[in-house]
Amino acid sequence: YVSAQAQVAHNSVSTSPNSNDVLMKENEQLRKELQVYIQKAARLQKLELEIQRISEAYETLMRGSCKREALEKTLRNKLEAEIKRMHDFNRDLRGIWSIYMLRPGSELLEQALASAQSRNRQLEEELHRKTAYMKKVERLQSALAQLQAACEKREVLELRLRTRLEQELKSLRAQQVRERSH
């Protein structure tokens, strides 16, 4: 359209200087409108890239969340099995204790008690570490949920902005068509 206008302007130079000025002004106005459209298209492209980046980040977060949940379940099952084993071990120690209380051999009893106490301390420390880890996993899941909510909010806002910009672009195109027809 612009090159056609330039041709018409070139051909009409011989006809009248006023029409040449009008054509040049119209051509300049069209160039400015084209620049506006180019800028808006660039903004739309940037928004699309940002939306794609956010979508990919969201998918990565979701995969990480699923992995964390599976790990948490596995750790919880191991922890429950270890606690059950500790209870069984303590029950067995009580049984041994009651047997040794009825017979002589306090050295064996003291060794068994010391061994049981040592093992019990190790298990309690392991339980403490695993509990701390579970709390950390829960905090990470909470942070992930907050991040996901923020991402969803941002996606909604970007969708609104994109819709508004597309409407503006349609309106400008319609305006340009109307101006061309006049």
UniProtKB/TrEMBL annotation:
Superkingdom to which the source organism belongs: Eukaryota
UniProt cross-references to Pfam families, sorted A to Z: Angiomotin_C
Main localization category: other
Record keywords: Cell junction, Cell projection, Coiled coil, Cytoplasm, Endosome, Phosphoprotein, Wnt signaling pathway
Entry keyword annotation includes tRNA-binding: no
Coiled coil: 20-64, 106-160
KW RNA-binding (keyword) present: no
Residue ranges occupied by any Angiomotin C-terminal domain in the UniProt entry: 133-180
Compartments, as annotated in UniProt: Cell projection, Podosome; Cytoplasm; Recycling endosome
Family in the record: Belongs to the angiomotin family.
The name this protein goes by in its record: Angiomotin C-terminal domain-containing protein
Organism for this UniProt entry: Xenoophorus captivus
